[in-house]
Design brief:
Radius of gyration: 23 Å
Number of helices: 15
Strand content: 15-25%
Largest sheet: 7 strands, mixed
Oligomer: single chain
Number of strands: 18
Amino acid sequence: MTLRVAVVGGGPAGIYTADHLVKSDPGVSVDILERLPAPFGLVRYGVAPDHPRIKEIVKALQRVLADPRVRLLGNVDLGADIKLEELRSYYDAVVIATGAMADRPLGIAGEDLPGSFGAADFVSWYDAHPDVPRSWPLTASSVAVLGAGNVALDVARVLAKTADEMLTTDIPAHVHEGLRANRATDVHVFARRGPAYVKFSPLELRELAHSPNVDVVVHPEGFEVDQSSMEHIGRNKQAKMVLDTLANWVGREPTGKPHRIHLHFLEQPVAIEGQGRVQALRTERTRLVGDGTVAGTGEETVWDVQAVYRAIGYRSTPLPGLPFDDTAAVIPNVGGRVLDLAGEPVPGLYVTGWIKRGPVGLIGHTKSDAAETVTHLLADTTPTAPQREPQAVEAHLSDRGVDHTTFEHWERLDAHEISLGHATQRLRVKVAGRQEMLLAGR
């Protein structure tokens, strides 16, 4: 009897899980349930438009979805369109792969002021995520970005570049119009640790200097490297490449380009200040303490900025009917087996990706993560679902008035977006679920 598995989440984690399942056991059939009408998760809705090389992974993901043993059911929201217990009646096992889309809170005064934004929300805006508005307030001339990872660099780069530099990308038309109104001339990126410990990738960092309209300014204040830093880069090739690039830039005078990205190290945010909206950021100088960590010095600086973007990490959110560790922001599990409140495995329930281990690691880690979960699932699971016919879940969705999308609908949207551009460029359209069923050709 065919083993039937539901994977909740149509991003890389979910699709790789489906791929491992059908390759590991030819008798498995997999349905991928995705809340949004279109698949691919953060590859579609979390990558900057000017990073097309990262989006090349979509070609591999599409091949998985084209497998006849894998079926995409888009526009289906767990908890609203189908409850977890209902889902389990149609499948022998359920794998949760919903990722992490929320911003991690910073926990400082003024974080909720107008003009203080989560980076994840801004990324969702410039990627035309259907959950965010079509407009974005870009009235600040001086902006702070808090964080020392690639998302912080993405936000800084998109804010600093001109809108027309994005015209060779898949930028949505309404986002291009929004960026044309952007008033930012100076974008300040703040890292609480020293330059040896930032999480930038070397390629992302070097890309900052590729714009003909942006000067990169690495401020010498806080650019400190101690013995612990040297030992760290000795063990980490990427960290050494990043530090070498920064060292070549430090103290270099701007060349007069109209926009600037400023990189500040050993500065931690203390408060976001303003009357009714963001008017300043207050930071504290930190110092290296010899073990890779930092301590505050009490020396504070007030920066005249009119907007703050918090890029300190993503966070998963709870799902109806499933346990959730609010501190770690993951579904409790051991090796992908979901644990109940007593710490016991829940039969037939599994988890993979960022909601399994937290928002760390690259896409390659997601593959190995999925392999571990699938290994345990196949060892544990036998066909037990009472309603086994593939049409049964579709009938349930139809009875609930859920107009779900399929892989064929995605192919139609994909072709439409490409047709709006040219042979080497696609133009993204905003697909807003039941309000705009372009996917279904309606």
